[in-house]
Input
Amino acid sequence: MPPPPSTPQRSAMLEIAGIAVSGGSGVGRAVLYEETPDVRAAAALPPADVEAEVTRLHAAAERAAADLGSLHESLAASRDAIAQIFFAHRAMLTDFLPQLETAIREGSSAEHAVQTVIHMAAAKIAKVRDPILSQRAKDIIDIGRRLNRALTGTTAAGLPEERTDGPIVVVARDLTPSEAVQLRGRNVAAIALEQGGHTGHAAVIIKSLEIPCVMGARGLLEAASPGQMVWVNGSAGAVVIEPDASAMERAVELGLRYERLEASLLRESDLPAETVDGHRATLLANIEYPLDVEAGMARGAEGVGLYRTEFLYEVDGELPCEEDHLAAYRETLRHLDGGRLTIRTFDFGADKESPLAPQEPEPNPALGVRSLRWCFEHPEPFKLQLRAIQRVATEGDVRVMFPMVASLEEVRRARAMLAETAAELAAEGIEHEPNLPVGIMIEIPAAATTADLLAREVDFFSIGTNDLIQYDLAVDRMNPRLEPLFRPSHPSLLRLLQRTIDAAAEAGIPVTMCGEMGGQAIYAVLLLGMGLREFSVTPGYIPRVRRLVRGLTLLEARRIAGDCLRLSTAEEVEELLRARVTPIGAG
Ligand code: PEP
Ligand code: MG
Output
């Protein structure tokens, strides 16, 4: 971390809490970044010559696509994951053209068409409850702005001038992916945003640029003024305006500690996740997009334990066809060096809405027609997905995984559909793998308590604690007010987990955990002691889980787990883990 400029001479220190998006600690003078104002086209003034207006639209789209092409090219060599975001922007831009053209033919100017079509698409997706999908609104806005600039011949507002007196902290309401990528190579010590979320593409870019960042810091823009000293603690999710001398000291110390820790963790990426007494664990990555796979591989993941596939449905427009599925799965497999790819079938509903997977309004979506239930009600898109999975399975270690299973009947029904699609592919003479491994997620208490019955008819289990906790403890995973009640340490949950792990062992099938719990340092040790050997976690957590596994014997882990399982409350379990698991990390 570059040395911070001299200590400020102003008023009281103010701390604002936000979301920890990109780890580390950075200090600098605040530079307030105003977002590029949207072009406000006059009302739908009908163009005098509709054909000329359509031509103008296409010419502007070509210029915008060329810009995106150069951006993609300039990033491809060093930062392929980021480059892919702009590659996707170019594809989305093309997808919007027919709708834009229709709007012009119905009497809009090109600018007005962009304003209505693209902004409406963004507004629609922003309302979706799924935090990943709703963040895509920012990508759509980014594309709209780029197209508008191409139409009007204007340039982006550009980034704030760098200060000559040391590093800067960029303070803004939000950043689009294009704005975020411009921050590379500049003297940016940290980023603090009033809005945003860790699932957006701007967050992906900022993490990849390794700039400490906090998002969702409410009240930030009102509190910060240009030139003020700001400390961003990206690991703890705090923005401190005008830090005092002792906070400054802490900022520097934490920054150095974080950098040392990250560097040492990354150096271990090639080492096996093996306990001191030689018991191996398998570390896998959870991914949302094909491009996430690179982050997992860079940290030594042995494959993908959870490939969420809802991203295929996130852009308003055409439904993905079988070839679109196949292309995305193939692209992901290509990065895996022979590692496994566990593709989870659609999990639409409740927290994962998509404009392309419409649902009837329901009184309680979390208990409604979601996931596999939705797939049974919509056999066409489901079968199309199954066909693509069976096709890509001829090219590597591909497994299929069904979410939200509550009963054996559902397993049988899903398997029967797999048999049906295999028969169709055979009849059509299309190469496919009819016998790929079939697994289920254990994320409903009913599945955990009947794990012994389910284990006889599937090839693997993957425990989804994000939902298992929600349903076991009756705590809505999306309700921030209930966060203190969302506790992996609850004795009921531990019993469900133990039962599932034991049932899998008894049946001789592997069991992975792909819920967030597996990536939380203290719980990874507990789970290891309970018999779990496969952890599928967000790529960034892989190095920490590896270090924990390598730091103890299985015997120690078993003792810790045994003691935890004898306790009566979540609090007692957490206390014991805090006392007995050596912490890793720099907050
Ligand atoms: C889970 O429920 O734990 C899980 C991994 O799936 P998702 O978070 O996608 O529901
Ligand atoms: Mg789930």
